[in-house]
């Protein structure tokens, strides 16, 4: 009887441990709930998003959650998060930074936009807000550290870069560590550690080999800590050139000859420091290759081929993700890639889609009603289309208020092509990377990108358009 009770007791304890393990495992892989609410003053029925980087090397963005504010500007979001990360709160196209972590909640109060400047949304002030967070004190600690760290940099810039005595840096570092070492949060500890690593590097407190030995070789690769990834990127962008580990010519040749990733890694391994860390070597090689994509000496298809090799063959899942995201991001709006379609209404509420104009080159223009040069260009667009009768279709997307004023302006001048109101489809601006008004995109008859962004109508746009038409027709005819 006693044995039976003992056995039952042991089994129950084992079951509890198994259950607890499964709970922890579930939280690790399936995330914990994050709750975000707030009010966006003056922003009724506006798109609200939580955006983060799918990885912080390529900085390829993904939306974690989205909703719309109600008539009073209130919004609520709930979603799962698996790890602490840097994120953006976006209302419309304006963004502000914060840090979110699993099992946390935030209450935002977003200030009304009172700026008078109405240029590109990307050039305006970031989203202004205050917030309270229930996240174990992480947001408050990062905010406090950033204020002290940035103030120190500002007040001591000359001494940091040109002074010889570095004791004042060590004293500041000691002060910070004594203040924050009691905070039991690994993200914060690494955030502070790699902030000081960057300071030690830029101030030349430590040489490159010491930096590599202390902060990278054999250390965990912190794929999700933004201070680590920013320092990693800044350091390895210049290290191999400054220390003359390999020459520019050697790198270009290794990429262009098509010999595979092993040749790129071999260049990095000319520095013996990296022999013990193949995962780090592969990540460095991936970043270096991707950063050369727009280099005129590089064959772009070779860059993509090497990245695909990492994505397909790497033993390290995080490196596979970084390579895959680079592949997607580098090709966004590239010539020959599919153009994002849309469905927007004209003044008569007839909807127009990009596919409605298959078979013609589409000259897509993005304008704002209060942009004087935008209106002046409309006449030039009319003349441009007439140079290529039956081949070029103008479509103008209007962002902002007073849409009917633009329509009336076009009507008075007998400009007969679709003028479409952007309405709530503001993500179209992000998709086409519209950062100024007016902006122009040329789309091929098969719905692929020809040029984004294209030159202004008064900057030889006709020559670019004529060249693209000839190239496309030559391709279709097999010439």
What's the topology here?
Layout: H1 2-30, E1 32-40, E2 47-53, E3 61-68, E4 74-81, E5 85-91, E6 94-100, E7 104-110, E8 129-134, H2 138-155, H3 157-162, H4 167-180, H5 186-202, H6 208-215, H7 226-242, H8 248-256, H9 261-268, H10 278-291, H11 300-313, H12 317-330, E9 343-345, E10 351-353, E11 361-367, H13 372-387, E12 392-398, H14 403-412, E13 419-421, H15 427-431, E14 439-443, E15 449-454, H16 461-477
Parallel strand pairs: 1-7, 11-12, 12-13
Antiparallel strand pairs: 1-4, 2-3, 2-5, 5-6, 7-8, 9-10, 11-14, 14-15
Helix pairs in contact: 2-5, 4-5, 5-7, 8-9, 9-10, 10-11, 10-12, 11-12
Tell me what the structure shows.
The protein has 479 residues and is α+β, with helices and mostly antiparallel strands. Helices cover 45% and strands 19% of the residues. The chain is built from 16 helices and 15 strands. It has helices at residues 2-30, 138-155, 157-162, 167-180, 186-202, 208-215, 226-242, 248-256, 261-268, 278-291, 300-313, 317-330, 372-387, 403-412, 427-431, 461-477, and strands at 32-40, 47-53, 61-68, 74-81, 85-91, 94-100, 104-110, 129-134, 343-345, 351-353, 361-367, 392-398, 419-421, 439-443, 449-454. Helix 10 (278-291) packs antiparallel against helix 11 (300-313). The longest helix has 29 residues, at 2-30.
